[in-house]
Amino acid sequence: MKALTHLILGLLLLIGALVIHAAEPAQPVVIQVSGMTCPFCVYGVKKQLEKLPGVAEAQVSLDRKLARITPRPGQTLDLTAIRKAITDAGFTPGKLLSGEAGGPQ
Length: 105
Description:
By secondary structure, this protein is an alpha+beta fold. The chain has helices at residues 2-23, 39-50, 79-88; strands spanning 29-34, 55-61, 66-71, 77-78, 92-98, 101-102. Strand 2 and strand 3 (66-71) form a beta hairpin.
């Protein structure tokens, strides 16, 4: 009975930790994108970025020449993959302006 109580308490602590971790806001990444000239360019960059693992949403601004990539909760973004996605869309990735990006997932 004591072992069962310890198991249940351990599971409750684990569930609590997962709930707290899931509630942490994900840190978005903002990166410059050069070469975009029209809404079709924006669409192409957005679609390439949203194909990446761990990406919840990508917002791309033609006027500001920026992409803002939001990771799924608990995920980190791979900056190398982000840069490659922008290049694959036909544009030039620039300076990382904000956010934290890690290695591959």
